[in-house]
Automatic annotation (TrEMBL):
The active site is at E70. This is Protein SprT. Its cofactor is Zn(2+). InterPro entries: SprT-like_domain, SprT_Zn_ribbon, Uncharacterised_SprT. Keywords: Cytoplasm, Hydrolase, Metal-binding, Metalloprotease, Protease, Zinc.
Length: 165
């Protein structure tokens, strides 16, 4: 995990401790998040997960805003309990009052979609109807799993057509 991110998490905790005049247990932090989310706070586990791709592409804003956003979730949970709304007034108080940041619920980072491969399956009963399978589902078929047409209950058959996109 990059030192800058770890240092930012620590700085956010120190700010919160100074404000609330109490000590908070430090979370486990990892970079095992993929997809569209920049960060996730797991409240019960005291765990922060961050998206390494979005971090690399948006480093400055990510360190300032996203890290504080996720830390604020953990602090709000520990200060006000489990019944508060995720982006409610308690969380907003921390974002504005402690970190002096806008309480933005979502990031605006550009998220590049992965290229997806689809394997086209067909049934004899519906002319021109394609059933696109993911690589995972196609591999299950190769290992013996069968999928059935909802209309006639016949086994769907791989057409040999692969679509990349």
């Amino acid at each position: 995990m990059p030192e800058q991110l770890h240092a930012r998490v620590e700085a956010c905790y120190q700010q919160a401790e100074s404000f609330f005049k109490c000590r908070f247990p430090r979370p486990e932090v990892n970079f095992r998040l993929r997809g569209q989310k920049a960060g996730v706070a797991h409240l019960q586990e005291n765990l922060l997960r961050f998206n390494p791709q979005l971090y690399r592409e948006n480093r400055e804003h990510f360190l300032r805003q996203t890290v504080a956003h996720e830390v604020a979730h953990l602090i709000a949970h520990q200060m006000f309990g489990p019944r508060i709304r995720p982006h409610g007034e308690e969380w907003q108080l921390i974002m504005r009052g402690i970190y002096e940041l806008p309480p933005d619920r979502c990031h605006t980072y550009e998220v590049r979609r992965r290229k997806v491969t689809r394997y086209i399956y067909r049934c004899h009963c519906v002319e021109g109807a394609d059933f696109p399978f993911s690589t995972q589902r196609h591999n299950l078929v190769a290992r013996g799993r069968r999928y059935f047409c909802r209309r006639c209950r016949a086994t769907l058959v791989f057409s040999g057509q692969v679509v990349h996109g």
